[in-house]
Amino acid sequence: MQTRSIGTSDLEVAPLVFGGNVFGWTADERTSFSILDAFVDHGLNFIDTADVYSAWVEGHQGGESETIIGKWFKESGKRHKVVLATKVGMLGTRAGLSAANIAAAVDDSLRRLKTDYIDVYFSHLDDDKTPLDETLGAYQKLIQAGKVRVIGASNYTGARLEEALKVAKESSLPAYQILQPEYNLYDREGYETELEPVAEAHKVAVATYFSLASGFLSGKYRSKEDMQGKARGSRVEKYLNERGLKILDALDEAAKRHDTTPATIALAWIIARPSVTAPIASATSVQQLESLAAATRLELDPEEVAELDEASAWQK
Questions:
Q1: Tens of pLDDT along 157-203?
Q2: CB–CB of 88/106 below 8 Å?
Q3: 221-224: which pairs have CB atoms within 8 A and are 24 or more residues apart?
Q4: Which of 230, 299, 313, 306 has its CA nearest to residue 260?
Q5: Which one of 42, 62, 185, 220 is CB 3.0 to 4.6 Å from 293, fit for a cystine?
């Protein structure tokens, strides 16, 4: 499996990221450990979480995902096999990107993760109330202290990412090496028009979230009945339209040709895009993980990519 670089850093990652939002939410601790072990066994090494996971669940405060990963590191001894990403800025008690908040939040995360360094530390959400040089200066201190290796930006507009990169260059501060945008076969326009040009121009790595459109691209939601009682059902409703079903048809056809699943094809399509370093995807069982890992071994030919491009075209 060919690894890919995170920006201009020396971090090398496999072309698939495991999304840790499920840990402590839809996957309990023991299941999470099994998934993490299987993920590493597949030769994969990039795991993404955040301090806010899973504060949206009743009775949770945030930090549940980090805590499970930390326990797994301690129990398995596999910290050295993982490029670990977590995020700051969205947890209610640690909101924003001020220097003081970042300094406090990173120590909270390190404690939960039972590690002394974070490979990739993301600004989870842009904070227009805090000057960019204050945020980047806070990250500089963390990098100098050995607590963080590289930094990334999630949920930034193209203009703000460009501005942050400019401030970093002019002030000799650390630059964002990786971007985390929403991107999948259905949600294409925002990334392709606004963010991709900036990422390509500045050699910024890209790890896409909602890579399977909250599970819609796995093919398990094809009617409103399929969504009832599902944790992500409400997020999927917007995809149940003519274009969404056309995309599923194209995925079904490609999956049959390769004797694989629609999810595998959907991820392989993202992996094939030159600007993308790795899609983020989650699983709640070792069996589900198999179809994610298979995407790293499947190479779509140009004609298949073109067919999926056409089925998912957003241009009118």
A1: 999 999 999 999 999 999 999 999 999 999 999 999 999 999 999 99
A2: yes
A3: 222/248
A4: 299
A5: 42
Q: What's the pTM?
A: 0.96
Q: For residue range 229-266, what is the model confidence (pLDDT) as tens digits?
A: 666 667 888 999 999 999 999 999 999 999 999 999 99
Cβ atoms of 277 and 13 closer than 8 Å: yes
- Cβ-in-10-Å burial (0-12, 13-18, 19+) of 108 comes to middle
CA atoms within 13 A on the CB side of 181: 27
* Position 173, amino acid: L
Which spans in 171-258 are helix H? 189-190, 196-202, 224-227, 233-236, 242-258
- Whether 121 is a known active-site residue: answer no
Average pLDDT, the chain: 95
Q: Which of 165, 178, 175 is nearest to 143 (CA)?
A: 175
Which amino acid is it at 251?
L
Helix (H) or strand (E) holding 122, with range, is strand 118-123
Structure tokens at 266: 């959907």
Domain boundaries, the chain: 4-218+261-302
For the domain made up of 4-218+261-302, give the CATH fold: TIM Barrel (3.20.20)
Distances (CA, A) of 285 to 33, 40, 141, 264, 268: 10, 14, 38, 15, 20
In this structure, the number of other CB atoms found within 10 A of the CB of residue 225 comes to: 7
Q: Say what the pLDDT of residue 224 is.
A: 74
In whole angstroms, give the CA distance from residue 251 to residue 26.
26
Tokens of 109: 């995360």
- Check 53, 139, 183, 191 and give the catalytic one: 53
Residue in the structure block whose two tokens are 């996971």: 53
- Both tokens of residue 224? 């409103």
Number of other residues whose CB lies within 10 A of the CB of residue 151? 27
